[in-house]
Amino acid sequence: MKGQPISGASAGAVVRGGRGRRRRGAGLTAVAGTLLLLVTACGGGDPASGDKGAPGKNGAGQVANAASEAVVTVAPKDGAESVPTSGSLKVTAEKGKLSTVTVTDSKGRPVEGTLAADGTSWQPVRHLAAATRYKVHAVAEDAEGRESARDTTFTTLVPKNTFIGQYTPEDGQTVGVGMPVSIRFSRGITDPEAVEAGIKVTAVPAVPVEGHWFGNDRLDFRPEKYWKPGTKVTVELNLDGVEGRPGVYGKQAKKFAFTIGRSQVSTVDASAKTMTVVRDGKTLKTIPITAGAPATTTYNGQMVISEKYKVTRMNGATVGFGGEYDIKDVPHAMRLSTSGTFIHGNYWASAGTFGSANVSHGCVGLRDVRGAWDGSTPAAWFYDNSIIGDVVVVKNSKDKQIQPDNGLNGWNMPWSEWTK
């Protein structure tokens, strides 16, 4: 049967004759001739050459039914348990080449693998999932085309310690052109190459997307320049079974996607005290603002809106300003940095402040009303016309450039450094 080891078997019957008594008459001659014919037909030999039909290289039936010389070996051994998720599975062939290798999990999902150029070995392209039973079916052929098969099963280990990745943006979300894929891991990672290999980010239309680690618990992905509007981005977290640090395994198998919306980049000129909003290359509006005061200047650089709040509380004690302020109802607030930089509405400063003085503690303020009820204010307009992932660029402030890991602000790192 094809796909199974072929056992050897005799192809023809062996006829043995004894000495009988010699009888007279034509009938005896005919019988003797008939017996000779039967011996020749069954034995397949050539009387002239003396070949009696014994097994050998000229016995075609013998070769056709001989066992394959190919030997298939699967590691780990059949029935093995607690198998490591990486580096354990390998299929090899001796005295032949592998023609078929299929590995599936308990749900029938295939494991992708690569066959060596010489056809003698196969390995999976990535790690296996933890706590999973796998079935292996492998077939090899020898030089004569005869097949030998091997079927085994094994079960991977059940990890005691695990990690997951918390990610942004959310599945199905439409975001601005500056939104990176940002993943924060629940445990510090000591094998970043293994973890990064378990994550796949693809874009349509296609564009190179590279990952960059910030410390040992955060991995961001982005293209070299802002995303093209309309791009569809898909992220696959194949972390189940990845050993991120000794004895700590990922337990996440997740796929999510998001869409890049229109392009909106707003530029704050801290010196001129204005913000110019540009969408898809067209200037929508220039808004008077107030930026950081001389003692508490605003960071320069490219910042991505990561959160939006119609009304929120801002307490200076949470960002190193002690009791200098505690405003319980800041309207139209949008986060630009982890350290507390926002662009938000300001109802406590006089209308004449905006466009003429920088008085904030480092945020960018726009004129607003208490309670965020008036949709005609500059702050309300900007809030309503902004989405997560939009870019706000601050320039001409007497401060340093914001750090790439302070918020979703990796755009402040040169591509040559990002891809190191």
From TrEMBL:
GO terms for cellular component: extracellular region. GO terms for molecular function: acyltransferase activity; peptidoglycan L,D-transpeptidase activity. Keywords: Acyltransferase, Cell membrane, Cell shape, Cell wall biogenesis/degradation, Lipoprotein, Membrane, Palmitate, Peptidoglycan synthesis, Signal, Transferase. GO terms for biological process: cell wall organization; peptidoglycan-protein cross-linking; regulation of cell shape. Signal peptide: none annotated. Residues 264-395 form the L,D-TPase catalytic domain. Residues 1-24 are annotated as: Disordered. Its EC number is 2.-.-.-. Pathway: Glycan biosynthesis; Cell wall biogenesis; peptidoglycan biosynthesis. The active site is at residues 344, 363. InterPro entries: Big_10, LD-transpeptidase, LD_TPept_cat_dom, Transpep_catalytic_dom. This is Putative L,D-transpeptidase LppS. It comes from Streptomyces rubrolavendulae. The lineage of its organism: Bacteria, Bacillati, Actinomycetota, Actinomycetes, Kitasatosporales. The gene is lppS_4.
